[in-house]
Amino acid sequence: MAALETPQPSTLRHAFGNVLSIFVLLLIGVFAFSIRLFSVIKYESVIHEFDPYFNYRVTQFLTKNGIYDFWNWFDDRTWYPLGRVIGGTVYPGLTLTAGTLWRILNTLNIPLSVETVCVFTAPIFSAFASWATYLLTKEVKGVGAGLTAAALLAMVPSYISRSVAGSYDNEAVAIFALIFTFYLYIKALNTGSLFYATLNAIAYFYMVCSWGGYTFIINLIPMHVLLCIVTGRYSSRLYIAYAPLVVLGTLLASLVPVVGFNAVMTSEHFASFLVFIIIHVVALVYYIKGMISPQMFKVAVTLVVSVGLIVCGAVLAVLIALVASSPTKGWSGRSLSLLDPTYASKYIPIIASVSEHQPPTWPSYFMDINVLAFLVPAGIIACFLPLSDASSFAVLYIATSVYFSGVMVRLMLVLAPAACIMSGIALSEAFGVFTRSIKFQLPGVSQNSPVNAGDAGNVMQNDVVKTEKSEDSLKERPSRKNKKKEKDKVERASVVPQIEKRLLVLPLEASIIAIFLLVLLGAFYVVHCVWAAAEAYSAPSIVLTSRSHDGLHVFDDFREAYGWLRHNTEVDDKVASWWDYGYQTTAMANRTVIVDNNTWNNTHIATVGTAMSSPEKAAWEIFNSLDVKYVLVVFGGLVGYPSDDINKFLWMVRIGGGVFPHIKEPDYLRDGQYRIDSQATPTMLNCLMYKLSYYRFVETDGKGFDRVRNTEIGKKYFKLTHFEEVFTTHHWMVRIYKLKPPKNRIRGKTKKAKSKASSKRSGTPKKNPWH
Amino acid sequence: MAIFTTLATATSVVPLLLLIFNLLTPLALSLSSDSIISELSALQFQSPTGVIHLTDPLLRRILALPTPRPFHFLLFFDAQSLHSKAELSLPTLKTEFSLVSSSFYTNNPDQKALLFFFDIEFQESQSSFALFGVSSLPHIRLIPPSATDLKKDSIPMDASDFSRLAESMAEFIESRSRLSMGPVHRPPIVSKKQIAFITVAILIWTPFFLKKLIAGNTVLQDKNIWMAGAIFVYFFSVSGAMFNIIRKMPMFLLDRNDPSKLVFFYQGSGMQLGAEGFAVGFLYTIVGLLLAFVTHVLVRVKNRTVQRVTMIIVLLVSFLAVKQVVFLDNWKTGYGIHAYWPSSWQ
């Protein structure tokens, strides 16, 4: 009787557990989605920042013209006069995802606009990402750790910063793809199933489509394989998990136009091929080892090793010579700056200039992963006890990503999932130990009445089965058929370790305090994350707000300026600005720009930088040679908006000077200090950027007090000779100037009269008699 | 500046210019300036790094030159008696100073006579110290050609200018003297011969290692090594050490208001000091390590009292560590992190 009855509550328990986990996962998904909606609630449903505007524009094109036109799209609105081949230079994953989503919704008769779909793509994929985290962590350390990790990931601030509603950028889908690819790799590794290996290659393809960060995967997985081989963990499962990924994955990756032959030609991918060769050699060695006697094997090994070393040496020499012959050693600048952190600051100002490529300080970690920073070491140690293929992968993931995040603050995003997985494991283990300690030492339970003991034993048994199972899954995973038999065995055997396990408890009251503190830590994490989502990461940066004693101020100057351009200029007019505003200008004003945020042509950017740092006449000549009609500058001095062009100006000088040596940074600095007040150098006070930013600024308050630099400006009263102001937004944040037409050659007094007339503002755009 | 160019190109100079020059300045003085420069060049040549040891008589003769003098000079104030004081780090600064000097002379062989590097010893030249009004060390001073009053016209180097050692000293000189310094050449840590030796050693060692590896008994198979390595990488990264390396941040700063005090923590989230990073990195790591200790080691301990006492200590330490980091973060960044309670609760 008893034998019949006991399995029943156990299966019921399992079923209940499964339903509960599904319900919890559902809630986690809802939570991950809704915590990202602060930006929509606080501002409006609008695309954020810079890059998302480009993605939005591409998505619009895709939905309007279809995939083939998108693939062949040559965009003549940017990089004038060069243009840009969009289909071949963009990672299409995000665009295709949102486009498909929009299409599906429309076929279901849900008429959402493309913009709405774009705005909400990121939150939807964050929910997917947290589910993927659950799957991955479950493979590493079981269901409990999986659920905890998923909950942590749903609200980790680092990820929120890139995936709030409206932040329509590659990372939004890429993080999901990254985690899911890792999950499938681990799943393939644990099961040795070719099905998962194939899926893994497809997931990798999706990742390659989505983000340049795919190189992280194609280096991390080979590293893990190599690690497994070196530490003597080679198995046929490892081969199955890895070999198809390299073959299929590389073939698929080269289908993406932006990657193309880079998938086999650049150094970022060489590691995977090298490991591919190594794993074959190792597989062969293991195969031969199984076939022949140990003595024969020894002889064979010495023979093969000596011959193999010579061949390897030759191949390596050729490879090194090949790689060394290229100037950057075959690595792209961004990857190089990861390996040698000081590289970018020395050689590539355009990479060093981007704020998200700076190395983070310790508060960044507290801001972005918060209390997880405390829990990760515990997770790392838990992964080593016991060490399995899957947990060694998790350790490798955290170690590499934490190093990369230390080099570039932007890669904190890659660290976040790893930190969540580790903390999930740590928290779940800690809760496991503490709750166990409480459960078996509660005054009511500890009295060994037979009924209670049975109950407790039952629970314990469950626990043991679970841990045994996961441990077993971590070691040798036999094929599916054997697995069921094993399970039965384990269940039968589990009565024995039960007694041992019962001793592993901590004092009751200390455990209660510990649980209380852990819950407090978790609560602090939630508070911090909600605060970060609401206050720190929800600003769309296209609409700004500031709170002062007399209420809320909204600065909508950017859209005002772009709207003005759209309505008041000719369709084919060219607008010059610093590259930061390129994407927005093309997307919102629909005007042609000279440079944009896709910084593919350094010379072109340097040309604009040089123009901005030159005196008016030289600048006019440069702009005129580029057919520029309007120049747009962003100025924060009136309202105190710190990321304006004057603050970015030194980078313009630096980048300009990198290509045109007559622009020298020290000319703009007084004793090594950047200043715009009366102590500023004459070069600074006469450059175009200064003039366009501070033209007529003194008329606002009579003193010309700059509220960002907190000083009075150096040169207050001046006239523009080659540019005329055509539009300045409400808060002076965006100022648009028009290039004056070249003057007619008129002698004598008439010339003066003419120039006076032209300096007045006039509404008619047609000044040039040649028009 | 005019004299300065004339002198530099003295061999090929137009006689007319020399004539004007001679009319302007007394002949005797011009000769002595020539002789001093050649003497200084000789001294510079003798010194392996190009730093000239300055004595009171030599300084007097240099100062006797009419202004503007034909060169800048940089003075390192040294005191042997203070070399033992670690917090002043005089020996380090002195080697860095000579590094700047040797780099300048290798980068600009044609400008050797435009910038001279001197060091001066407190014991033997106390009067010169008084002349410059130097009362505390470390002290480095740049004397421009036009300086007449040594106290006022010479430019002392700020603590921030030698905080990043040779590189920042070079930047300082570059910005004040308008001479181009070029990159600082540090001697490589390993010489070429050593590199060759190491390569050969590795090549010989590889087959033996492979054999061991196949047999399965190397350090690589010891998981504790990997665990320690992973934890170390984590500690290293979260402490922001990469920031310190890339930005070449010092471990601590001297307080501007009170030089005897040291500043270990820098307010403002965009910057951090070395010691500060490691301290917080340690706090980040210790909590996790203690938690792992409790869940994996302490549970196996049989003695209840030991368990109880250890746990209480662990919990207390962890709690204080978290609290300290939260406090430091709020202080450093100035963020007011708050929860969103219902307004009726307040």
TrEMBL record, chain A:
A molecular function (GO) term: metal ion binding
Catalyzed reaction equations: a di-trans,poly-cis-dolichyl diphosphooligosaccharide + L-asparaginyl-[protein] = N(4)-(oligosaccharide-(1->4)-N-acetyl-beta-D-glucosaminyl-(1->4)-N-acetyl-beta-D-glucosaminyl)-L-asparaginyl-[protein] + a di-trans,poly-cis-dolichyl diphosphate + H(+)
InterPro entries the UniProt entry points to: Oligo_trans_STT3, STT3-PglB_core, STT3_N
The protein's annotated pathway: Protein modification; protein glycosylation
Swiss-Prot/TrEMBL cofactor(s): Mg(2+); Mn(2+)
EC number: 2.4.99.18
Gene Ontology CC annotations of this record: endoplasmic reticulum membrane
Record region (Disordered): 466-491, 745-771
Comp. bias (Basic residues): 745-759
Membrane topology of the entry: Multi-pass membrane protein
Entries under Gene3D superfamilies matching the protein: 3.40.50.12610
Span of domain Oligosaccharyl transferase STT3 N-terminal: 19-422
Subcellular location: Endoplasmic reticulum membrane
Domain STT3/PglB/AglB core: 572-631
Ranges annotated as spanning the membrane: 15-38, 112-136, 142-160, 172-197, 203-227, 239-264, 270-288, 300-324, 365-385, 392-409, 415-434, 510-534
Subunit structure: Component of the oligosaccharyltransferase (OST) complex.
Assigned protein family: Belongs to the STT3 family.
Protein's name in the database: dolichyl-diphosphooligosaccharide--protein glycotransferase
TrEMBL record, chain B:
Annotated GO CC locations: oligosaccharyltransferase complex
Signal sequence, renumbered to the chain: 1-30
GO biological process: protein N-linked glycosylation via asparagine
Transmembrane spans: 195-214, 226-246, 278-299, 311-328
Sorted UniProt keywords: Endoplasmic reticulum, Membrane, Signal, Transmembrane, Transmembrane helix
Protein topology in the membrane: Multi-pass membrane protein
Localization per record: Endoplasmic reticulum membrane
InterPro entries, A to Z: OligosaccharylTrfase_OST3/OST6
Domain of life: Eukaryota
Biological role: Subunit of the oligosaccharyl transferase (OST) complex that catalyzes the initial transfer of a defined glycan (Glc(3)Man(9)GlcNAc(2) in eukaryotes) from the lipid carrier dolichol-pyrophosphate to an asparagine residue within an Asn-X-Ser/Thr consensus motif in nascent polypeptide chains, the first step in protein N-glycosylation. N-glycosylation occurs cotranslationally and the complex associates with the Sec61 complex at the channel-forming translocon complex that mediates protein translocation across the endoplasmic reticulum (ER). All subunits are required for a maximal enzyme activity.
Family: Belongs to the OST3/OST6 family.
Name of the protein in its database record: Dolichyl-diphosphooligosaccharide--protein glycosyltransferase subunit 3B
UniProt source species: Fraxinus pennsylvanica
